[in-house]
Amino acid sequence: MRRFTYDQTLTEVKYAVDDAIDLASVLALNQQVSLVTPGRVVLALSGTPRKPESQQRLDQLVAAGATVAEASQADILSLIERQAALAGKDGLLILSVSSHGFTRDGTSYVLASSSLFEHPETSISTAKLLDIAAGSDAARSLIFLDACRERSSAADTRSIDASAAAPLIEGMTHADGQVVLYAAAAGKYAYDDDKRKNGVFTAAVIDGLLCNAATDDRGLITVETLADYVETTVRSWIQKHKDPAIRKAIQVNMDGQTKTMPLAVCPTH
Question: Which fold has domain 16-191+243-256?
Answer without folding.
Answer: Rossmann fold (3.40.50)
